[in-house]
Specification:
The protein is an alpha+beta fold. It has 4 helices and 6 strands; from the N terminus they run αββββαββαα. It folds into 2 domains: 2-24 and 106-183, Ribosome-recycling factor (Topoisomerase I, Chain A, domain 4, Orthogonal Bundle), CATH 1.10.132; 31-101, 2-Layer Sandwich (Gyrase A, domain 2), CATH 3.30.1360.
């Protein structure tokens, strides 16, 4: 019972860290990378669809992204979504494809991006703590219903705290890596 709860907790915490890493990959660092925009939601026939499913994204030059939609009709939707995003990029549409010039980051923009990294990291830490709270409540409920003993509850709480600490630490590491990458000129 306790082990099942801990396995569930670990899976959910891993999901929070994975989600953070995906989020951080989308924060630009001055270099052109398809990861910056591939998860950008595009309103396509009334459904938000990731850009990577609607177009090929290439990097013809170090500071340029080229987006070639599979369906030319989606070009305007893609352009609109890029303009509405918090990327701070201006799309150039030539009717067949969209080019995105990635300007070098200013010092001010770098610090804004660091704040975004911190916010996303805090959201991930909150998610991990919420998992801990949910599983902790489950363990207490098991003990109240006499499914597990008090000793099992204590061991479970201890293991749960170790798991939480481990995933909060990996969130801090991911955040620190991204912050260093953003601030690097």
């Amino acid at each position: 019972m306790v082990n099942d709860a801990l396995v569930e907790a670990e899976n959910r915490m891993k999901g929070a860290v994975h989600s953070l890493e995906d989020d951080l990959a989308g924060i630009r660092t001055g270099r052109a990378s398809p990861v910056l925009i591939e998860r950008l939601p595009i309103e396509y026939y009334g459904t938000p669809t990731p850009l990577v499913q609607l177009a090929t994204i290439s990097v013809p030059e170090p500071r340029l992204l080229a987006i070639r939609p599979f369906d030319p009709a989606s070009l305007k939707d893609i352009e609109r979504a890029i303009m509405a995003s918090d990327l701070g990029l201006t799309p150039n549409n030539d009717g067949k494809m969209i080019r995105l010039n990635i300007p070098p980051l200013t010092e001010e923009r770098r610090h804004e991006l660091v704040k975004i990294v911190h916010n996303r990291s805090e959201e991930a830490r909150v998610a991990v703590r919420n998992v801990r709270r949910d599983v902790h409540n489950d363990l207490r409920e098991f003990e109240r219903e006499k499914i597990i003993s008090e000793d099992d509850l204590e061991r479970g709480e201890e293991s749960l705290q170790k798991l939480t600490d481990k995933y909060v630490e990996s969130i801090a590491e991911a955040s620190k890596r991204k912050e260093t990458e953003v601030l690097e000129v």
